[in-house]
Amino acid sequence: MANLYLIRHGQASFGKADYDALSDRGWEQGRVLGRWMAGKVSPTAVFAGDMRRHRETLEAMADGFGQSLPEVQTNPGFNEFDHETVVHALKPEWANREVMARDLAKHEKPAKAFQLTFVEAVERWVSGQYDSEYPETWVDFCTRVNAAVDDALANSGGGDVLVASSGGPISVVMQALLGLDDKRALELNQVIANTSVTRILFSGRRRSLSVFNNYAHLEDGAPELVTFR
CA-CA distance, 59 to 139, in Å (whole number)? Predict the structure, then answer.
């Protein structure tokens, strides 16, 4: 059987003008992962969403890997859902960044306050009760992610596959593999570490989970690099 390695991107630039860019820590997470995978993985195909943080994660990995990876095949099906649209559906006033910053500054822990609001916003989106308010529904999101996985495996060349993606798509893949309900899938999304590796064995249509959310490459050598957003 071959292996599908689902890699969550490195830490993005939360609170910056371009969230989609990797932070300095995110770049280093990617390099550490590349060094850790060198000699262990020889992919025949590499895929990514078309988000900047996906591309930059693979660039950082290539730096650490020490040898050239196969040409990256871009598939927007691996993109994260639009978190800003989901949050703004619950909090329309937060479309104004100054208003959001002011509201969060009222809390002792602004990052935690944002996370709580984010979880509430995602639960609202997933419920299906307000689908008309979203350009992409939860069901549509799951459909495109699973279609992207099917496409990647069909074009794997028969060998191991690397995919750089995000926490949401990885949770969707876990949901399909393990038969999880929406609530459990969302709970998984909250614990997926940056540059963690989820490994799935596949042969034809057969797929089975081998490892979920492995970030030993950070824990063992650089625990200060462990992040979850």
Answer: 31
Burial of 173 (0-12, 13-18, 19+ CB in 10 A): buried
**Residue (of 8, 6, 2, 10) closest to 30 by Cα position:** 10
Q: Alpha helix locations (H) across the chain?
A: 24-37, 52-65, 83-90, 97-105, 110-126, 138-154, 167-178, 182-189, 216-221
Amino acid at 24: D
> Rounded to an integer, what distance in angstroms lies between the CA atom of residue 56 and that of residue 72?
12
The pairing of beta strand 2-8 with beta strand 197-203 = antiparallel
Confidence of residue 67 (pLDDT cuts 50, 70, 90): confident
Q: What is the pLDDT of residues 170-208, one digit of tens each?
A: 999 999 999 999 999 989 998 999 999 999 999 988 999
Tokens of 78: 């691996």
Q: How far is CA 43 from CA 46, 67, 114, 151, 179, in A?
A: 7, 12, 37, 16, 28
> If you ran DSSP here, which 8-state letter would residue 42 be given?
-
φ/ψ of 7, rounded to 5, equals -115, 125
- In angstroms, the CA 227 to CA 42 distance is 26
Q: Is the per-residue pLDDT at 35 higher than 70?
A: yes
Q: Which residues pair with 206 in a beta bridge?
A: 203
Angle at 203 between CA 197 and CA 208, to 5 degrees: 50
Measure the CA–CA gap between 12 and 124, rounded to whole angstroms: 24
Q: How is residue 86 written in tokens?
A: 């989901």
